[in-house]
Amino acid sequence: MPFARLAAATTATAHIGLGLAAVGRPGYINLGREQDLPADRSVDALRERTHELLEAAYAQGVRYFDVARSYGRSEEFLADWLNHRPDIDDVVIGSKWGYTYTADWRIDAEAHEVKDHSLATYERQRAETAELLGDRLDLYQIHSVTPDSPALTDKELHAKLAEAAAQGLSIGFSTSGPTQADAIRAALAVTVDDEPLFRTVQATYNVLETSAAPALAEAHDAGLTVIVKEGVANGRLAGPYAPDALKAVAAETSLGCDAVALAVILRQPWVGVVLSGAATANQLASNLHAAVVDLDDDQLSRLAALVEDPQAYWERRGQLPWH
């Protein structure tokens, strides 16, 4: 299990990963993106930004990097960096399949990605990922599994994934939407030859959206590594967009709202890795302060009062524009 490497890591930030969704393509739904990225969003400009972030993250103790086929050229940018840094052999690399990037490097595209969890898509995208990341890939996740996803019932697909697992690749899944808990529990029941198929789960969890917590605890107890994404809720818990209660706690700690939001996640006993989705080196540095935030019971209670109804949270997320 590749994440066993992180268990022995001595840096406080080893359990904070860097996801490249925000910098692998010119358009994304994070708030404040207009200021975060350069006006020039050419392939070369975002490749340079991605490499800057990867260098900074590694230097500050980050050891998990997360990409996906649908994150524009994120796999390519990460592969380029790894090829230029052959000395780095202590990182864990995860990618995802199941969405195809369709925006053609445009911000105003009608559709930025198309979901398809079929076996044919897996085989096509597995070959594409292999061409870029080769044996550096540690974890391959089904992207955004929902309770009705055919990936939960396709026995032929399960057999192919188990075959990849037998060859040394860890198999996981990510979830999205208000029924994350149902998807997680359904995935935990998937077996091949009476052995659980999935070794990791990546899910949205933050102080606004906590509904998946019980299912994630069950996944952890079943032996899966839990990866938390969208810890700052696509920017809603960072900087000027944060609710007043979070701003107040952040002021008391003398750290950023983003660091406090991520620190709440790191406190959960079932969390293995929490992802930073930073788009700038300054954001990354602020995110990494989460490892040293100390919150008391009163502060945690005030933050717990921010939780939203899952349906309302996901409806609002679905309305965020691509910038």
From TrEMBL:
Tell me which residues make up the NADP-dependent oxidoreductase domain.
48-307
The cross-references to Gene3D superfamilies, in alphabetical order and at most eight, read: NADP-dependent oxidoreductase domain
InterPro entries the UniProt entry points to: AKR2_Oxidoreductase, NAD(P)_OxRdtase_dom_sf, NADP_OxRdtase_dom
Domain of life, per UniProt, equals Bacteria
The name of this protein is Aldo/keto reductase
Q: From which organism does this entry originate?
A: Streptomyces sp. R41
